[in-house]
Amino acid sequence: MTISELGITRPPGPSSSSEPTLRPATRMRAWLAVLGLGAAAVWLGYVGLQALVAAGDLSSALAAARDHSAGPVLIVFVSVVLVAERLWPAVPRPLVARAHLVDAAYFGIFAVMVLPLLTLVQTGLGVEVEAHARFLLLSHLSMVPQLVVIATILVGIDAMNWAAHVANHRSLALWRLHALHHSQEDMSVLTTFRTHPLVHASYLPALLPVLVLGAGGTVPGAALIVYACLVTLPHANLRWAFGPLGRIVVSPAYHRLHHIAVPIDSRGSVNFGFVLVCWDQLAHRAIFPTNAAPCPTGILGRPVPLEQGAARRAVPQVVLAQLAQPFRLHAATDVSS
Ligand SMILES: [Zn+2]
Ligand SMILES: [Zn+2]
Questions:
Q1: Long-range own/partner contacts, residues 52-57 (CB < 8 A, 24 or more apart)
Q2: What is the whole-number distance in angstroms between the Cα of residue 113 and the centre of ligand 2?
Q3: Ligand 1 midpoint to CA 265 (Å)
Q4: How far is Cα 174 from Cα 167, in angstroms, rounded to an integer?
Q5: Domain that includes residue 164, residue range
Q6: 71-107 pLDDT tens trace
Q7: SS3 for 295?
Q8: What is the pLDDT of residue 70?
Q9: Domain assignment present for 247
């Protein structure tokens, strides 16, 4: 499928004033849904904290999560990609671009605050599933080789991440949280971490393959670290399309089209894949990159407070404004699709 086949014709520019206005009740529902998601996350986090403290596993669980998602391997990987971006940038950027500082701040927030809280929330979900939906947990997998179970879990995680990502674009409430990630106009590998903390709650379904098949084999930490690196690389400011491998694995050039500033609808509709491209192909939502110049990224009309805006606010001020936006009754990201 090509861009022209999908009808991407709207030129870059300010958000169209002809966007249909939302009914107040619709906005209210989106706002309440964001608050509800936050309340559910707090509850699951509390349940998870209780369970880990009772089992004496709190520190080991937090250490494992840090190693898998923000540990030394990932930091070295991101550093190497940052060097590659200096050598072969898709779009040349200053060495210390303001966008990079903001996205680096999000990495710090993720590593120090979000990851520990997410660990509690994920543990809480596991506790609740075990208590109330035990029928979901398969325990008779001894006939299946462990390697097959582990591979199935990883593919299942990727499928659920894809589905949750689509929901982030289709749901008005979830788009309030996901828009921050898409607001970046100067993408780099650090943009991976430019996410609202609460958006991680929308990706909790990705835990289900682990819970459902977990009795058949625990996914080795090394596999989770490799998965985290593969999720991070597509945001790099590189033109890499991976050649024939790019038809299987998400490349920076492929994911850049997901962040295109001129989407086919107001929330972007192609290339949702995290690591595997097959989910987009099955849903006819895959566009493969060509040799054309890298597309501009961001959101038309800049509905999210930006570091690139005319007002030169300090980085902490920008981040706080971005984090607060989804909780406003009238969020500028609210547009009908
Ligand atoms: Zn997206
Ligand atoms: Zn992205």
A1: 52/120, 52/123
A2: 21
A3: 12
A4: 7
A5: 24-327
A6: 999 999 999 999 999 999 999 988 888 899 999 999 9
A7: coil
A8: 87
A9: yes
Residue 209 maps to a domain: yes
Residue 113, exposed/middle/buried by CB under 10 A (0-12, 13-18, 19+)?
exposed
In degrees to the nearest 10, what's the CA dihedral of 102, 103, 105, 111?
170
> In the structure encoding, which two tokens stand for residue 11, read together?
């030129």
User: In the predicted model, is pLDDT for residue 307 greater than 90?
Assistant: no
For the chain, the 3-state helix, strand and coil shares in percent, each to the nearest 5, are: 60, 0, 35
Question: How many whole angstroms from 103 Cα to the centroid of ligand 1?
Answer: 16
The helix/strand/coil state of 250 is coil
CA dihedral in degrees (190, 194, 200, 206; nearest 10)? -40
In a domain, 76, yes or no: yes
How far is ligand 2, taken at its centre, from the CA of residue 236, in Å? Answer: 10
**Separation of CA 169 and ligand 1 centre (Å):** 6
Q: Please give the C-alpha separations between residue 60 and each of 53, 113, 211, 334, in angstroms, as whole numbers.
A: 11, 16, 19, 40
Per the structure, the count of domains in the chain is 1
Residue 255 inside a domain? The answer is yes
CA nearest neighbour of 273 among 297, 289, 249: 249
Angle at 191 between CA 337 and CA 45, to 5 degrees: 80
Distance set, CA 92 to CA 96, 97, 258 (Å): 12, 10, 20
